[in-house]
Specification:
The relative contact order is 0.17. With about 325 residues, this protein is α/β, with parallel strands linked by helices.
Length: about 325
């Protein structure tokens, strides 16, 4: 890519604890020149961004940047949760000589991507139809449980963030109660994140080993091990754990739908659920989502989707940047 002194470039990034993805976007939110780097290979965020701009011959360009990052961004001083990177937003902008710099939370970026997703970038689970411009909710089991909501105001999407994954876990069926009671022997409080995450799936499995009086030493299975064996049908406890995970996810997603009136749909993101989409389809996820007593009719109308797009963070950062630059 050739650079000119007057060239205006929109740079977007999706920054996690392990990888950083950088790309260039245009006014139509198309993503180009995607590069992925290992965060541990760079001493500072500015180093990797400078490396990318140099590699793409953009150091002399007028760069507007929007960085989606996995940590709070509401102050000038940024300290990443899972990395030693600490920096001032103002200083980063000055050091890289950026025309503009905007930082957003990683789940704000994922949420902002949702209105742009086509049918090849998401898979529908169950019934319900999307109502145009109505609120949208997203949750994502991964390292933790990310949650965000979108509302449309004057044809612009605005993200409402928060820490919804840390709300109190509410058992629904008898097995939920048994898992809750078992985990409470070692936990003072149980949030949904403690069940709907990689660590959460492992905790569900470990609780079920005790509940089923299984004489096994193999209680240290990883979330990937548990889901793999559940899908293969080689471990009954793993299968039970993954099934209960899907049920609890359905209950939580259904709560989001009721809380925000998300007739625009509830979307499942994160790195875990896309690994076993067919399992979710055949689970009681949707039944739990819809079973809300007198309000069940609302959730039966509300569609649920699993995001399959590999770069929702970059797409969302592009959408956010283009919206504020209008």
């Amino acid at each position: 890519m050739n650079s000119q002194n007057t060239q205006i470039v929109n740079l977007v990034a999706d920054i996690g604890g392990t990888n950083i993805r950088l790309a260039i976007t245009d006014k139509n939110n198309n993503i180009n020149e995607i590069e992925t780097y290992q965060c541990q290979d760079f001493p500072h965020l500015s180093n990797v961004i400078h490396h990318y701009l140099k590699e793409k011959s953009l150091l002399n360009s007028k760069v507007n940047a929007c960085l989606a990052i996995a940590c709070p961004v509401d102050t000038d001083s940024i300290s990443m949760t899972n990395l030693p990177w600490k920096f001032s937003q103002k200083q980063l902008k000055e050091e890289l000589k950026l025309n503009s710099l905007t930082l957003i939370n990683d789940y704000t970026a994922i949420a902002m991507a949702i209105p742009l997703l086509n049918d090849q970038q998401k898979i529908k689970i169950g019934q319900g139809e999307t109502v145009d411009k109505q609120p949208i909710a997203v949750c994502g089991p991964g390292t933790g449980l990310g949650v965000a909501n979108l509302v449309n105001i004057n044809n612009h999407w605005h993200c409402l963030g928060g820490e919804g994954g840390h709300t109190d876990f509410a058992p629904v069926d008898e097995l939920d109660v048994k898992i809750f009671q078992q985990l409470k022997t070692t936990k003072n409080r149980l949030s949904y994140e403690q069940l709907l995450s990689g660590y959460g799936l492992e905790q569900i499995y470990q609780a079920l080993v005790v509940i089923n009086n299984e004489d096994t030493k193999n209680t240290k299975l990883t979330a990937k091990d548990i889901s793999t064996q559940a899908i293969a049908g080689t471990c009954l406890i793993c299968r039970q754990a993954l099934s209960q995970f899907c049920k609890i996810l359905g209950s939580f997603a259904g709560n989001l739908a009721l809380t925000t009136g998300s007739l625009g749909g509830v979307y499942i993101a994160g790195g875990i659920v896309p690994r076993f989409i067919e399992y979710v389809k055949n689970s009681e996820f949707r039944e739990r989502f819809e079973t809300k007593g007198r309000m069940s009719h609302i959730n039966k109308q509300t569609p649920t989707y699993i995001i399959t797009e590999s770069q929702p963070g970059l797409i969302g950062a592009a959408a956010y940047l283009n919206q504020i630059c209008q």
